[in-house]
Amino acid sequence: MAVVCMVVLGGLVLMMLCICSALLRWNEVKYRKKGLPPGTMGWPVFGETTEFLKQGPNFMKTQRARHGSFFKTHILGCPTVVSMDPDLNRYILMNESKGLVPGYPKSMLDILGKCNIAAVHGSTHKHMRGALLALISPTMIRDQLLPKIDDFMRTHLTSWDNKIINIQDKTKEMALLSSLKQIAGIESMPISQEFMTEFFKLVLGTLSLPIDLPGTNYRRALQARKNVVNMLRQLVEERRGSKESIPDMLGLLMKDDDNNYKLTDEEIIDQIITLLYSGYETVSTTSMMAIKYLHDHPAVLQELRKEHLRIREKKRPEDPIDLNDLKSMKFTRAVIFETSRLATIVNGVLRKTTHDMEINGFVIPKGWRIYVYTREINYDPFLYQDPLAFKPLRWMDKSLEYKKYFFLFGGGTRQCPGKELGIAEISTFIHYFVTQYRWEEVGGDKLMRFPRVEAPNGLHIRVSAY
Ligand code: HEM
């Protein structure tokens, strides 16, 4: 009897699924070729921003169930098309030259500067990206950056023994201060502390409403930008005055030879802000979440620790991590990818249309935003078996990193140029952390997953020597 019931029930479920999927397809076909993609625009001015921010990924999934994986909405002050289709996402990212340029909010562009990489397209972007790639090339990582990262991490991680630390704050400090050291060798605490305070205000403003009134995050961030620019200008002038040629990132940016396009001071400063900003939140949040997942998965931590102890065994305590060590950290790389996937450090990227254009059979008007929403791809059971589980081993199959739907670092012409540098930083941090310390969570801290991954009151851990 039970078996018959199950078969009948199974049949009914299957029939329902077929009907739902047919309805979905019909919905898509109905709207296609008729103009705008399907979807709702919500209230005047506010659109569906409240639902988007409150319900987060569930809002996206509900809209997808109603309208298909390419739908219109109105969020964060702009008419927007959300694309959740992996192939369309790829198409959009690969076709900037057809008029699908970065579409980040006005506040972000005002605060990061008009020479920021997200503000330029076409040949200027190509040129700027080339200049940035030269600063973070594999040779630069080997000779210049990795030794500095190593030195920084050793100091940053000293005296955590027997303390309760907020790992969120520590990883944020780490990401920013380590970059400052790589860019210009800045280490002296008073300057870096002052810089850090202003930089954090700047970051907060990039995701605020662009309302220039006293007390708003936007106004505070504009002021912080002025202070950051002044500090960086002083740095550039000091370097110029010293006549010394230092082969670090700042030295390369300021290099004045016949083969190089000579950057103005304004361009140099915006390039530095681009570097600091792009690597800051991604590196810090991935590092914090790696610590969280490792804490929750002791067997993975044990495996990871083995990898790092093996490296340490061959070295004297004072020997730094070198490029070969980094290359041998295969499991660490897997842990970083798995953290980035499961936590969804980057939900997606924003583009906007430079003219009316047709995508997927719909017309997208000029100036509309396109949210290339890649989050759901991270949990697709066809791409990642058992997608909600933390299983770094899946990345030991190297081909996963080169699959066509690998968007953890973006895709197309804007794919993250700092990927390997970011991995080098997180790996070195993990190396010194897991070989020196064990830790447990104090408990009671909340984690938010959307719109960004963060612990609103910090993530506190009790650390002791390993
Ligand atoms: C785990 C670390 C990182 C993640 C997950 C990450 C992710 C991303 C993503 C998704 C994009 C694409 C943005 C878009 O298409 O609009 C991007 C772009 C970019 N990233 Fe990263 N990133 C990381 C680390 C870094 C680091 C350390 C740096 C700097 C040294 C950096 C520099 C950049 C720059 C300059 C761009 C803009 C590229 C362009 O517009 O051509 N990133 N990153």
From TrEMBL:
Chain residues that bind heme: 416
Keyword Iron: yes
Cell compartment(s), UniProt: Membrane
PROSITE patterns per the UniProt record, alphabetical: CYTOCHROME_P450
Pfam family, one: p450
Keyword annotations: Heme, Iron, Membrane, Metal-binding, Monooxygenase, Oxidoreductase, Transmembrane, Transmembrane helix
Cofactors named for this entry: heme
Top-level taxonomic group: Eukaryota
GO function terms (MF aspect): heme binding; iron ion binding; monooxygenase activity; oxidoreductase activity, acting on paired donors, with incorporation or reduction of molecular oxygen
TM segment ranges: 6-24
GO biological process terms, semicolon-separated: brassinosteroid biosynthetic process; brassinosteroid homeostasis; response to light stimulus; sterol metabolic process
GO CC, alphabetical: membrane
UniProt membrane topology term: Single-pass membrane protein
Family to which this protein belongs: Belongs to the cytochrome P450 family.
Listed name of the protein: Cytochrome P450 85A
